[in-house]
Design a protein that fits this description.
This protein has 2 domains: 15-64, no CATH class; 71-308, MetI-like (MetI-like fold, Orthogonal Bundle). It is 73% helix and 3% strand. It has 13 helices and 2 strands; from the N terminus they run ααββααααααααααα. The chain has helices at residues 2-15, 23-52, 77-108, 115-127, 130-140, 147-154, 166-194, 198-206, 211-223, 225-239, 243-248, 260-270, 274-308; strands at 55-58, 61-64. The protein has a two-stranded antiparallel ribbon with strand order 1-2. Helix 7 (166-194) runs antiparallel to helix 10 and helix 12 runs antiparallel to helix 13. The radius of gyration is 27 Å and the shape is globular. It starts with a helix and ends with a helix.
């Protein structure tokens, strides 16, 4: 009798369909903390900047001025020079950083006796705080007494005030920035190189392909998503640069090292022009969003072509 009751209970249990849990609930639960942080510290400040760009502060009172902060930007010579400086900085710094980090990754990708030491040496500038690194290079660039001028004096070359001349100040900051971030980008390339299939390179070697041809026709196409990602990081980092500019040159001389985010910092905290700083922030956000959309399109194109190949 009890056996029949148990079998009937089992049949009823099997007959009643169980409610399936929505898999999206768990996913949103894991994403919720990051989503809250992003909204609080990224989206909300962006909205605040867009709103504040439409107002002007007078005697502690906010007055609506519409697009009045955007109109004078076209006639601002300092803003024009800042845009030119930013463009030069990005167009030179990003290719040099991307290519140099790739070369470093190729050098330390193979196993040598000193490979670990070289990896540590190349990556060491990354762990230094930006202010400390800028201070070190500020000492290196010191006229007459700095290491750079001392080396030039050994070879009989003319000593230069690298950070005190408009012609050389921006390039001096570029050198320091490349030294600081090349090791960071190298790690992404190194991870990409070590993740590639060895069969492809071994097949190219069997076919008689040299090192350059193997890299050009096998390694580089398979590695393509990595330089795209590194380029995005380099562009965003170049546009958002403030620390080393403040320590090394403070935008000078004659605004030669004033970049866009540093100019926003000056307007907001040095000149207390919150409205103009907010308008400039909106323009910077628009540029970064446009670049992110372009990067997303290129990323999909690279991955789809790679999958199709």
């Amino acid at each position: 009798m009890s056996t029949g009751i148990q079998s009937s209970a089992r049949l009823l249990t099997r007959a009643v369909p169980r409610k399936r849990k929505n898999p999206h609930v768990g996913a949103w639960g894991f994403l919720l903390p990051s989503l809250v942080i992003m909204c609080a510290f990224t989206v909300w400040p962006m909205v605040q900047s867009a709103v504040r760009s439409l107002y002007s502060v007078r005697d502690g009172v906010w007055h609506y001025v519409g697009l009045a902060h955007y109109a004078p930007l076209g006639n601002d010579p300092v803003f024009a020079q800042t845009l030119v400086n930013t463009a030069i900085f990005v167009l030179i710094l990003v290719p040099v950083s991307v290519l140099l980090s790739l070369v470093l990754a190729l050098l330390v990708n193979r196993r040598y006796r000193m490979t670990s030491l070289f990896r540590l040496a190349f990556f060491h500038p990354v762990v230094l705080p930006m202010v400390s690194a800028a201070s070190i290079w500020l000492f290196l660039y010191t006229p007459d007494y700095g290491t750079v001028d001392q080396l030039l004096a050994i070879f009989g070359l003319q000593q230069t005030n690298w950070l005190g001349q408009p012609q050389t100040a921006l390039f001096a900051v570029m050198v320091m920035t490349v030294w600081k971030q090349a090791g960071y980008f190298m790690m992404f390339y190194l991870a990409g190189l070590q993740g590639l299939s060895r069969e492809a390179t071994e097949a190219a070697a069997v076919d008689g392909a040299g090192a350059w041809r193997t890299f050009r026709e096998v390694t580089w196409p398979l590695l393509m998503p990595t330089p795209l990602f590194v380029t995005v990081l380099a562009v965003v980092g170049a546009v958002q640069m403030v620390d080393q500019l403040y320590v090394m040159a403070q935008g000078g001389p004659d605004n030669a090292t004033s970049l866009l985010l540093f100019y926003i910092y000056q307007q907001a905290f040095s000149f207390q022009n919150i409205g103009k700083a907010s308008a400039l922030s909106v323009l910077l956000i628009a540029v970064l969003v446009a670049f992110a959309v372009l990067q997303n399109w290129l990323d999909k194109k690279v991955h789809y072509e790679g999958d199709g190949a």
